[in-house]
Amino acid sequence: MNPDIQLTALQQRLTGEALKDAVARADVVLDCTDNMATRQEINAACVVLNTPLITASAVGFGGQLMVLTPPWEQGCYRCLWPDNQEPERNCRTAGVVGPWSGLWALCRHWKPLSY
C-alpha cells in the first residue's frame, strides 16, 4: 500500500453544504449508499466539484460498478438515471445474494487503488 494514502470513512449522513465540504476535501469519492436519492446527491456534489465518483450496487444475482470522472464527457449518474425513483427491482423486491454484496463492495474499494 502507498504510505501517502489517507483514508477518511464517514459514517454519518451528509447533505447540502456538509456533503459538498466533504467532497471538496476528497481526491475520489466511494459511494457506499443503498438508495437512489442519496446517490444522486453525492453525484451532484461530485459533478459540481469535479471529483471522481466510484459507485457499485448489487441486486439479485447481478450488480454494477461505475467509475465516473470529470470532465463528465461519458456522463454522470444523473445522466443514466435522471430521477430519484428507486428502481422497481431493488433489494427489497428482489433480494440480493449475500456474497454478491461483498463482491461488488470489494470491486468498488479496489478501484481507487488502480485509479
How would you explain this protein's 3D organization?
- This protein is an alpha+beta fold.
- It has one domain (16-114): NAD(P)-binding Rossmann-like Domain (Rossmann fold, 3-Layer(aba) Sandwich), CATH 3.40.50.
- The chain is built from 5 helices and 3 strands; from the N terminus they run H-E-H-E-E-H-H-H.
- Helix 1 packs across helix 2.
- The relative contact order is 0.17.
Measured between the Cα atoms of the first and last residue, the distance is 13 Å
Largest sheet: 3 strands, mixed
Please indicate the count of domains: 1
Question: What's the arrangement of strands in the largest beta sheet?
Answer: 1-2-3
Q: From the helix content, strand content and strand pairing, which structural class follows?
A: alpha+beta
Number of strands: 3
The CATH homologous superfamily: NAD(P)-binding Rossmann-like Domain
Mean pLDDT equals 86
pLDDT under 50 segments (min length 5)?
none
User: How many H/I helices?
Assistant: 5
Protein name: Sulfur carrier protein ThiS adenylyltransferase
Domain THIF-type NAD/FAD binding fold: 1-105
GO molecular function, one term: ubiquitin-like modifier activating enzyme activity
InterPro entries: ThiF/MoeB/HesA, ThiF_NAD_FAD-bd, Ubiquitin-activating_enz
